[in-house]
From TrEMBL:
This is Tricarballylate utilization 4Fe-4S protein TcuB. InterPro entries: Citrate_utilization_prot_B (IPR012830), NarG-like_sf (IPR036197). Keywords: Membrane, Transmembrane, Transmembrane helix. It comes from the Bacteria. The lineage of its organism: Bacteria, Pseudomonadati, Pseudomonadota, Alphaproteobacteria, Rhodobacterales. The keyword Membrane applies. The chain crosses the membrane at residues 103-126, 138-158, 214-236, 251-271, 283-306, 312-332.
Length: 356
């Protein structure tokens, strides 16, 4: 990890530790105030606990032009991004992504080309619906590795993170407490419960919390759709296509809508926010990834709406190309932050349990 980013975040954390004005704002400050000195692992843990709500910045009396020049949200955002890059496997891909948001576009183009080639070379086994364009076996051959390999990469990164932050044996209560905070997105409401200042220093809003929830639950519903369809195909001998009022369709359509709306809302909020209070180096990559995720949801909805038309084969290739790019880039994009933040929340729950 970059020592200068850690050192600057440590300097600011030490000042915050002496001040303690923001003690009740979010999970960061109770954890910060529990320490007298901060190791590199402590700073990494604080950075991944931070949700960048920015309330502490707007409440702080030591921001510029004060000589202390505090900007804790930005300092922690930079360490957070650097930690994902440092722990990622393979590491060079992560660093390239965050500094070159166009890598997503390249991945999409490559994904489209591969899928078009697969459609032409492999062809169909005479199935119905989408399988009339690309056989079920071909889809499995393409997407099973694209799903499993990123999971392995994320697992390696989380293991490295856990060692860095001094994580110990996990108790069931640590997991349930962390999941409870994650599901409610409690830290995006800040300590006062009125929301965060992400959009405007004078305005508290739950907007960022709501779009995060839309994206999270939209993604989970889409994942549930695919999982249920897989079970129906292999265990109940019920291959696709499925009718509208089936679980795969109901989960998929509702998930696609939430994902699309949530990503549009997130981009709008990021465009209105002050970039200097986050990681400016990662801003372009973040926007590109959110756009990709939203496009996955939107293209899935369009594909379903036009599934009986002549446009379906091309739409299928575009949609699957976006999905393929999403999966392959997951360990190196903002998507990884969900895994690291959950791990940080588990570590924080562990800290509270061991301290009490």
């Amino acid at each position: 990890m970059q020592a200068d980013l850690i050192q600057e975040a440590r300097r600011q954390a030490e000042i915050c530790n002496a001040c303690r004005y923001c003690e009740g704002y979010c999970s960061v400050f109770p954890s910060l105030h529990a320490n007298r000195a901060f190791s590199d692992g402590d700073i990494t843990q604080l950075a991944n606990l931070c949700h960048n709500c920015r309330g502490c910045y707007y409440a702080c009396q030591y921001t510029a032009p004060h000589e202390f020049d505090l900007n804790l949200p930005a300092a922690l955002a930079e360490v957070r991004r650097d930690s994902w890059e440092s722990f990622a496997w393979p590491q060079p891909l992560a660093r390239k992504f965050h500094t070159h948001g166009g890598a997503i576009i390249l991945a999409l183009v490559v994904g489209f080309a591969l899928l078009f080639a697969a459609i032409k070379a492999i062809g169909s086994a005479g199935g119905e619906g989408f399988y009339a364009v690309l056989s079920h076996n071909a889809m499995v051959a393409i997407f099973a590795p694209a799903f499993l390999l990123p999971l392995v990469s994320i697992a390696v990164g989380i293991r490295r993170f856990w060692r860095e932050v001094g994580g110990q044996r996990i108790a069931l209560g640590d997991i349930t407490g962390a999941f409870g905070r994650a599901v409610k997105m409690q830290d995006l409401a800040a300590g006062h419960g009125e929301g965060c200042n992400f959009e405007d220093e004078d305005r508290f809003s739950q907007g960022r919390r709501h779009v995060h929830q839309a994206i999270m639950y939209g993604f989970l519903l889409c994942f549930a759709s695919t999982s249920v369809a897989t079970l129906m195909h292999y265990f109940f001998d019920m291959p696709a296509p499925y009718p509208l009022f089936s679980l795969p369709k109901l989960f998929g359509i509702s998930g696609g809508l939430l994902l699309t709306v949530g990503c549009i809302g997130m981009v709008a909020l990021k465009l209105k926010s002050d970039r200097e209070l986050g990681d400016t180096q990662a801003w372009g990559g973040d926007i590109a990834f959110i756009a990709l995720l939203g496009f996955v949801g939107f293209s899935g909805l369009v594909l379903y709406a036009l599934s009986g038309t002549a446009a379906m084969p091309a739409l299928l290739a575009v949609h699957l190309g976006a999905v393929l790019a999403f999966f392959l880039l997951t360990p190196f994009t903002k998507m990884a932050h969900g895994f690291y933040r959950l791990a940080a929340l588990i570590r924080d729950a562990q800290r509270k349990r061991l301290a009490g």
